[in-house]
Amino acid sequence: MMALKQLRMKDGIELEVYDEGSGAALLFLHGFPLHKGMWEPQFTEFKSTRRVVAPDLRGFGGSRNSSAVGPGRMPEPVTMAQFADDAAELLDKLGIDKAVVIGFSMGGYIAFELMKRHRERVAGLVLADTRAGADTEEGRAGRRKMAAAAMERGPVVAVEAMLTKLLSPKTPDERPELAAAVERMMLDASGAGIAAAALGMAGRSDMTELLPDIQVPALVIVGEDDAITPPETARSMAEAIPDAAYAVIAGGGHLANMERPAEFNRVLSDWLREISK
Ligand code: MLT
User: pTM for the whole thing?
Assistant: First the structure.
């Protein structure tokens, strides 16, 4: 099977999607402002035993042109519901009925919307370095500022504001090539894509009330040094979900799946084995 596909969505935009392997499907949803490349260590691990699907969400990576707007104009927010509808549509197009959905950070916000809007498509839920709560007023103001700056100066504003926060404080010294790869991923987004998703995240709903109603197996994973969605936040989210496992990745920051891939993959693969018994 060809690993990279361009899928034309019903509103005319094109999404680039990685699709490789066969068997039970895993749908990986990336974070902000990254792209599907953040899941490379998981593609390598799981493509021989599962069908691995990972889109570049609209405005990011190979789908960066989908959020283009005219000069001087601010894009409409891309809501988490829109991203979730895109994910359900791409499952339709790929002939996948159900998938285990693995959402990282913003991808987790989208996974919650998938649970709300398309719950019949979700076989299991992995919430990696994410949170159920909405933004504070201060958080929303910061998003609006980033959106305006991204329209003016492009994706470099996200690098300036976020690169160090995405990684454990140890990573830039221990693995400078990883920090450089994350920076390149951010620069692959369009300014409009960043602005649209930042405004979408600012307006997202609080999903705390959805947690007790999640009726599929769930796994909450978080990096020990995650400064954006710290372990305490992840733990209380796991405690509110009826059937959730919880794992902390030692030495991992927000991007624990890239920084500590062996440990992250082990936790994920043990859990997948457990839920398929
Ligand atoms: C992400 O990694 O997707 C972002 O940190 C999410 C956010 O800014 O809330």
Answer: 0.97
